Each structure stands twice: as structure tokens, then as C-alpha cells.
Amino acid sequence: MIKIKLLGKDINMNKLTSKLDASYQREIKKSLLIIFLLAVVLSGISLFPSFGIDILTINYLPIHTILETIAVVTSSLIFAVGWNTYRAKISVNIVFLCILFFGVAIFDVSHILSYEGMPYYITENSVEKAIDFWLAGRLLAAMALMIFALFHISHRSRLSNRYFLLTMVFLFILCVHWIVFFHQDWIPATFIEGSGLTAFKSAAEYFIIALNLTTALILWRRMSRIQSYDVVSLFTAVTIMAMSEFFFTLYGEVTDTYNLMGHLYKLIAYAYVYKAIFVTTVQSPYIELEKSKSELIESEQTLRESQNIAGLGSYIFDFTTLDWSASEILIQVFGVKEKALYSYDDWIDIIHPDDREMMIKYFRDEVMAQGNSFDKEYRITRKNDNAVRWMHGLGKLRYKDDGTLKEMIGTIQDITERKETLETLIKLSLAVEQSPNSIVITDLDGNIEYVNAKFSAVTGYSLKEVLGKNPRILQSSKTPIETYDVMWEALQKGNTWEGELINKRKDGQIYIESAIISPVKATSGKITNYVAIKEDITEKKSAQEHIDNLAHFDQLTGLANRILFGEHAKYLLEHSKRTQTSVAIMFLDLDHFKDINDSLGHSIGDEVLKQTAQRLKNALRSEDMVSRLGGDEFILIFPDTDITQAINIATKIIEAVSGVNLIEEYELTLTPSIGIAIYPNDGMDLETLLKNADTAMYRVKEEGRNGYSFFTQQMQENLSRNLDIVNGLRYALERDEFELYYQPQLSVDGKNIIGAEALLRWKHPLFGMVSPGEFIPIAEESGQIIKIGDWVLKTAIKQMKKWQDEGLQDMIVAVNLSAVQFKQANFSEHILEILQSVGLAHEYLELELTEAVTMNDPKAVISVMDKLHEQNIRMSIDDFGTGYSSLSYLKKFKIYKLKIDQSFIRDIHSDQDDRAIVTTIIHMAKSLGIQTIAEGVETLEQLEFLRANGCNEIQGYYYSKPLTSSDFAAFVRSRG
Asked: Cβ contacts of residue 688 below 8 Å, gap of 6+?
């Protein structure tokens, strides 16, 4: 940073020149420094006028003459340079300034000759005469420079203009000289001997100073832009001129220090004017000429390098000699040896064999025969490395004076890279045009410049129809406005946008597109276009929606499936945890729904489920959800619901579901059983809540169905016991915890033992004896009944065989079968294998089926019964009367006896309905030729009633409780 100090203040040169053009910064700083130093000298001399230069003022006249002579020479040079360069490209201003400085030179000469001590100059010399010529010269110089700065005319001066101007200057000079020589009294006095300068002289000097400073200010402002002349030198000149004139306002004697320094400063100012004129008219053009020469050389070098890079060589083919000469570049392109001339055959030999015949024919028939210019692309085999390269040859024919062919001049360019690029572009173009995705290219305003065939196939618009139009013609108004806002925000930042658009085809059909839109950038990084690659995903979206529907919704009822229900429930439970509210979970099962499927078919059952689902949805609030787990099981969730609200909801649901279902010709009424669990009391997670609601639902089933029940701790304890029983059953056989007891079956008169019913007993290591009524259903549900039932069959059959071997009387052993066992494939074959392996005769085995098992699939039951009946294995129906047997099937069953359930026997002595049922069963069995046996006989009154009504057999505590195998053997022997 450059600073100077003036009058005690720092002046920052960089800041001072900051508004000037950068090209002037360096020179103006140098000029300002010089001006500053001269100003310092001026200030010093003003304070100390005689310091160090007294010897100069003593010899003033010769020194003055020398200084003024140099000034005259300088002014003359200014004129000479400007006058003699008029033919160059200079402005009128330069010619004008130079001619006026010729006038300044004449006035300076007259000033020298008019000084006292010099010979007479036309008239007697005097101080007044010298000062008058001085003021005329200074005023003419100041005016010339101001006019030059103010009126800059750019066109060239004409010859007549400069002679006219020179004539006008001569006339002005003559006029001034005539007045000074002959009418000096017309001019006010300028100097009084002994007194010094007059007021007129001082005023004239200050006027000239003002002109120079004004010109300096104008030139300073001109430097804000590039000028066609050396503006810095002229600025320096007029500023120093102003300081020179200031000296001439101070002197008291015409030979003092101020006068001398004023002449010296004037000479320095003239030197800067000369520099400005010389730089503008001589030096600058020369520099420009040298610059042009350098640029021309550089251009030629660049051209050669460009030709080399482009693989562009030149040649001349002589038709007289059939030789051709090649440039250095062409020699490199062809890879041939360096020599001046080549033959026609050499050129033909370089051409690729596949193109050679074509090129010979082309050159002979079209160029030489028809006189056409040469313009052909062909391949060569480069000599130095046998590389195949593509060439583009151009040639122009030249003729002799007699009209015959003289030569052909032209160029050959290696276009291999261009051809490869073109092939790549063709492949790219084909790839774009044949792309399976729509491709759209737009300008920066979004106007379409290109679309491929897939776009037309998808939208129905041809390329011609959409060129210049905006892609908004595809808008369907179904895409959110925010999507477009986000898209344009990304694109304008130069980023890629990816998303989905809902658009409309030409025919109005709506479709969905997956789009990737990217800005296309030039090598400079500037965005030039946008390209969109789009795929019609309408079918994919539809398929995805279908998949989502399959994944989250029940396909029969349209209700949420367990996955979707789980996601929703998780959200509700988390929300309830934050808000400390309760949530109700209900597990709903339709009562006896299986009977509808079995009796009326699954299509009717499906319609029942659909109607039930719709009724459940209608009964719910918008924030509630119902889901179908499968079969006839539904789960429901109710946010912000306590026990009281759950009761009201459950009551409403029972009423809605229990309505009549009109399906085809049937009027079907089903009731629901609902289990309820409340978050957070009955569980903190969905799995626990569902398990507890399920447990509560089974309690409803146990208590008669068609109702609701809240989960209780007792249910949890029962559930825990069930789990313990399930786990215990897994190891009961291995640990030999099972044992068979046998209850005697006797004739109704009590005289004969007909057989024994095998009854399973389980002694748990922790729970002790577990009732069959408790663990048998659990074993059936857990699937463990298969192994357990098989063990019972084998054990009972082996025991009967053992008794027979021990000499006990012949009798049958009755074994209860579960529905799971009876449905096993090849069940009848399995029974026969056991009997055969043990060696027990078939007629000593009786299989007991419950009434419910026989009616589950009557046709399948009949098939198995027939097979067993053919093998003399007896079948009986247990707990008869508790189900709803169809008499039409009952008569087809190959059964030996009906077992009357003990629930009818218990109150037979006091309950008229029980007596009627028992009597009816006995009489019906007799009519069908089937034996009857009553279980649970404990009193004489029961026995006498059964005997009186024709029951065949009895079983119960009246005769004996279930016995161990050894006790049973002893019982039989005691009755023998």
C-alpha cells in the first residue's frame, strides 16, 4: 500500500486511484509520486527562494535562453511528430494539439528574443514585451490542452483540415505579434520595476493555472475508461504546468529563483506532452505492429498445431507426372518415409484393400473424367504400424492455359476419432430411441426438444406434436403441487430429482410414471438442458397395491389381516402408553360356525363371514379396527376405552352379529363369544393381550356361548396350569406316568360281566392325579393325543390278552377314541396291526366314539366303520344324547351299542325329561337292533328304571368304580 503525507495528512494512493481503469494504475501512481515530489520542491523554494541556486540567478540570461530553447525544440518536436503522422490512425485532437503547440513554440521564440539583453527584436526589447509573449504562449498551451481533453473526436484528420488549422494558428500568431510590436499600450501593464508583478499579471497567471487544473480534473475522469491517447502523461503535464505558472505569481524580479524554476517546471511539462504525443502517434502503433506480428506468428504456429492435432495435411498432385507431394503432417498421417514426391501407385497402395477399387473408380470416373472436385471418405492402412485409419480427402483441380489438367491441390484429414465418435453416437442414439423407458429432453424453460419412440407409445403424442411444448400437457392435476415445487427446486440447484408423477395420456387415460430428471451440464458446468428418463409403472403400482392388499387384508372379508392389525395395534399401544389411556382388545369367535360349513357348505359359510365382517365394521368407530385372524375368529381393538365402555361396545357387537343372515334360501342366526382384555391391566404388549382375550373367549364358550367375558387372574392361573399340563404331557409317556383303570360293564341283571371300559389316569409328579376331563381336551388340542391314544389302545389290548391267558372269562375291552385318532389315515389298518401283533381276537375289542365325532364327517365315519365291522371289531357311540345325531346316518353306522350319557342317568329318578330321553334312546336302539348301555349308574332306583325299560348293560359305581388291572381281575374272579 502506497501512502504519501501532505499537509500533515496521509494520502492512500491505492484508494485515490481505485476508480481508475486497471490499465492506468501503475503509471498514474508513478506520475502522482513525481507530482508530489515537484510540489514538495515548490513548497521548499517558496519558503527558501535563494537556497542553493544563487549562482544560477546570477547567470540568468544564458540559462533562461537555454531552457527556453529546449522548450521551443520540444514544442517543435510535438508539432513535427503530430504533423508527420497524420496518415496514421490518429484523431483530429492530436493534429489540433500539435499545430497549436507549433504556435506555442513561436511564442516561446519571441519570448526569448524579447528579453532585455538580447538584440532588438523588431522593436525595442523590454520586460513587458517578454511577458506578453510569455502569457500568449502559456494561454495558447492551456487552451490547446483543455480543448483536447474536452472534445475528443475519433475520426481521422483530413489533409485539408490540418492546413486550414495551421493557417488559422499563423494568423493568430501574427495578430498577437502585431499588437505586441506596435500597439503594446493596448495590453495592461504586467510588471513594474521595483514593485514587481501587477494585478493583471497575477490574475492572468491564476487564470492559466485554473485552466490547467480544470484540464487535469477532466483528464483524471477520462482515466476511468481506456483512452486512445496517453492520458496519464497529459494529466501529469497539465498538473506540472499549473505548478509552473504558480512560480510566476511569486517572483519580484524577472531574474530571481521563482522565475527560473517556473521555466524549469514548464520544460518538464512540455516533456510530458511530447511523451504523450510520441506514445500515441509513434510508440503505440509500433508496439501494436510488433504485437500483431507476434500474434500472426502465434496464429500460424497455432494453425500448424491445430492441423497436427486434427491430423490435417496438405498435398499437390501433378497430373503430368502422376506424382504428389505431401506436407509434413500428411507424411505423419500416412506413416510413410520422409521424401518430397510420391507416385500415384504409392497413394493407391496406402488405401485399405476393401476401399481400393472404389477409390480408383471414383478418382478415374468422377474426378479426372468429369472434372469434379475431390471429396471422399476412405480408409488407409498406415505404413509404419499397419493401423487402419479413416481419411477425409478434399481436392481442387487446377488447369493449364490450354485447358488441360495441371494439378490438384487439397487436404487430407485423419477422421478416425470422429468416425468412432459418430459410431458411438449412432449406437447411443439407437439405444435412446429404442430404450424401454420414455426419454424427454427439454431446454431450460422446460420446452420439449426431443422425445423417443417409447414416449410416443406411452403418451400417444408424436414427436411433432410435442416439440416446443411444455411437458405440462401431460399433467392430470392429480400430482400434488408440492411435488413439482420440490422437483424444480432440485433442478435449479443442479441436482437430480427422482419421484413419481400421475400423468394423463393423449386419450385422457391416467397413468403413473417413475421419473428421474437430471440437469445436463456443459463442460463449463453451466446447465444447458434437462433430461427425463421415465417408466410407466401403472401396472407395477396396481400389482404392488394388490400385493399390499394380499399382505395386509383378508381376501374374503376385506378386513385387515393380522399383520396390518399388529402394526396398527402397536401404534395405539405406544400412543396409550404416552397418554396413559386404556385400550380394549376383543377376541370374537362365532358359535357353532363349523356346523354351517359342514352342513351347508363353505360357500354359505363364506357369505356368513362376509356379512359378519360388514356388521362388525358398521358397529365400530373410525378410530377402531377389526381384523379376521382366520376361520370364524376376529380380533378388535378400541383405543381410549375402559371397562365400562368395553361392556357397551361388546353388547352392541353381540346385538349386531346376532341378527339374521339371509343367504340364498337360508335364514341363519349365529351368536358370538367375545373375550376382552384391557391394556395395561391385562398385558403390556399385543401378544399378551390377544392371548388373554382368547382365554376369556374360551371361558364364554365354556359357560354356554353368546356373551362376553373379561380376562381375570383366575383365567391366567388356569392358562398357566394348562401350559404346565401341555409340557407335562410331552414327557408323561417317557416317565411312565400314565396308567389304565378298568370299569366293569355288566348285564342289566348284574349276573354277567360283559367287558370293561379302559379309562386313562395320569399321576403328575407335582399336581398328583389329573382328571381326564382336564388333560384329555388339552392333549387333543396340542396334538399329543395321537401318541397317548395309541399307547392306551396297545396297553388295553395287551391287558385283555393277558387276562385271557391267565384264564379270565372271555369279555370285551372298550377303548375311547378321539376325533384326531379316528381321522388318521389308515386308522383301521393300524388297529388290525396292533391286534395281530398282540394276538387278541378282533371280537374282544370295542372302540367308543363320541356322538360329535361321528357327525363331523358322517360319510368318512361310515367308510371306516364298515372296514372295522368287516374285521369283527365292535363300534359304539359314547355320550349318546348330548349331540345332535342325524337318524338317517345313525341307521347306516355299523355300531354295536349306544352308551347313554351319565348326565341323563344322574336325575332319572326325579327328572321327567331325563326319563323320557333315556326311554326314547333305549326304544330307538332296539328298533335299530342296537344294544344300549347306561353309564354312571350309582343307585338301585336308577338300575331298576333301566332294567324296567329294557336297557341291556350298565356301568357305574353301583357295581364298581374304575379298578386297576389286578383289582379288576380279582373283581371278575369274585363274580365268577
From this structure: 677, 682
